[in-house]
């Protein structure tokens, strides 16, 4: 739900056009919740979720570390007050010159998932720690991340051995159980595979020390999701089951779970129409769509809560679409969205839980529409 601070900001400022408003108080509460739920894990906020300077500065002040995917994200985290020791270059796909630049800035923690990436790091960042990302099935996630990043656990053995032989610090293993992961047991299987890698390499004289348990912690959209405390308890139980008394260092990389519920997008109804006279489904066009920041509606994976001034009255199913001249700019059609029958052209709507992956996914100026404006309060 939109916080009172967000409601008051919109009422007092009346910003024109679609905009995102983020409440920093919510982010601080989320950070504190993660630290209580997993007190022995270091938090590396996933900068890609929302890189607003105010968000990064708040988290840096709270003591967060940062998971970055590029040199600009590294520079943003450092500008916000994070030292290089608090930054991980977590993208497994990096140009060699970007690795060299990160190394020159002081970054010493790098993700890999193949021997070729290890060799780049060995050439230009020789005194670095590397962790190897392994594949997971992503079962239970709205956005599984099991194909593009990571390697089979058996291959990770070779990758980490290669890093060790090239003089790098074979530091650990990472995985990502999939974005918007609602299955509390998702971490259990991945931690079992990580423990296997730890044991196998220990027998070869290579001592791994860290497990990066990734992100995946969800935001509540239309359906309830488990509480952060429930994830913490399940993860701690799994760690004890697989590692016993030899607990590794652990890292988590919340992004959506840190900032998703802190943001609300204010949008406007541009048009309501039907495709034929007896069409039971209205088409509702907003002044924001997939290209304006709602890219995660692709395949209707993320269904955002939408509130209007007519809530409480009768509703009917609608196709919800954006304003651009692109037929792909339709958010919800396969499963129409119930909106109030009284909704009319010019009405404002609030699209809730949009603090993550909206400003960063918004196009620069497709069809001449301005990038999504953002206000951090």
UniProtKB/TrEMBL annotation:
Source superkingdom: Bacteria
GO cellular component: cytoplasm
InterPro entries: Ala_racemase/Decarboxylase_C, De-COase2_N, De-COase2_pyr-phos_BS, Orn/DAP/Arg_de-COase, Orn_de-COase, PLP-binding_barrel
Enzyme Commission designation: 4.1.1.17
Keywords for the protein's UniProt record, in alphabetical order: Lyase, Pyridoxal phosphate
Pathway this chain belongs to: Amine and polyamine biosynthesis; putrescine biosynthesis via L-ornithine pathway; putrescine from L-ornithine: step 1/1
Active site per UniProt: 325
Cofactor(s) the protein needs: pyridoxal 5'-phosphate
Chemical reaction(s) catalysed: L-ornithine + H(+) = putrescine + CO2
MF annotations from Gene Ontology: ornithine decarboxylase activity
Record bears the keyword Lyase: yes
Modified residues (N6-(pyridoxal phosphate)lysine): 48
Domain Orn/DAP/Arg decarboxylase 2 N-terminal intervals: 25-259
Gene Ontology biological-process annotations: putrescine biosynthetic process from arginine, via ornithine
Transmembrane segments: none
Family designation: Belongs to the Orn/Lys/Arg decarboxylase class-II family.
Protein name from the UniProt record: ornithine decarboxylase
């Amino acid at each position: 739900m939109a916080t009172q601070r967000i409601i008051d900001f919109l009422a007092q400022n009346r910003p024109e056009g679609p905009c995102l408003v983020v409440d920093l108080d919510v982010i601080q509460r989320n950070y504190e919740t993660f630290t209580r739920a997993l007190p022995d894990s270091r938090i590396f906020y996933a900068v890609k979720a929302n890189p607003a300077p105010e968000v990064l500065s708040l988290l840096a002040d709270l003591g967060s570390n940062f998971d970055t995917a590029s040199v600009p994200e590294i520079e943003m985290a450092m500008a916000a007050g994070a030292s290089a020791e608090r930054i991980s270059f977590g993208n497994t796909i990096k140009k060699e010159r970007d690795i060299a630049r990160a190394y020159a800035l002081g970054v010493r923690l790098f993700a890999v998932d193949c021997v070729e990436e290890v060799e780049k790091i060995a050439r230009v960042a020789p005194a670095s720690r590397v962790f190897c990302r392994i594949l997971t099935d992503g079962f239970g996630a709205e956005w599984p991340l099991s194909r593009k990043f990571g390697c089979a656990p058996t291959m990770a053995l070779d990758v980490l051995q290669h890093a060790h032989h090239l003089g790098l610090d074979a530091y650990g293993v990472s995985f990502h159980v999939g974005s918007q992961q609602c299955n509390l047991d998702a971490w259990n299987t991945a931690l079992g595979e990580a423990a296997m890698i730890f044991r196998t390499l220990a027998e070869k004289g290579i001592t791994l020390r860290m497990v990066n348990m990734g992100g995946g912690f969800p935001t509540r959209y239309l359906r309830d999701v488990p509480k952060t405390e429930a994830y913490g308890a399940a993860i701690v139980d799994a760690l004890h089951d697989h590692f016993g008394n030899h607990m590794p260092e652990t890292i988590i990389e919340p992004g959506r779970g840190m900032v998703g519920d802190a943001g609300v997008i204010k949008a406007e109804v541009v048009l309501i129409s039907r495709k034929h006279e007896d069409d039971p489904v209205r088409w509702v066009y907003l002044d924001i769509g997939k290209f304006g920041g709602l890219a995660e509606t692709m395949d209707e994976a993320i269904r955002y809560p939408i509130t209007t001034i007519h809530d409480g009255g009768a509703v009917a199913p609608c196709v919800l679409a954006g304003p651009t001249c692109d037929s792909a700019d339709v958010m919800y059609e396969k499963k129409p969205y119930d909106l109030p029958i009284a909704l009319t052209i010019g009405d404002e709507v609030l699209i809730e839980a949009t603090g993550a992956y909206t400003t960063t996914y918004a196009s620069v100026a497709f069809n001449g529409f301005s990038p999504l404006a953002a206000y951090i309060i």
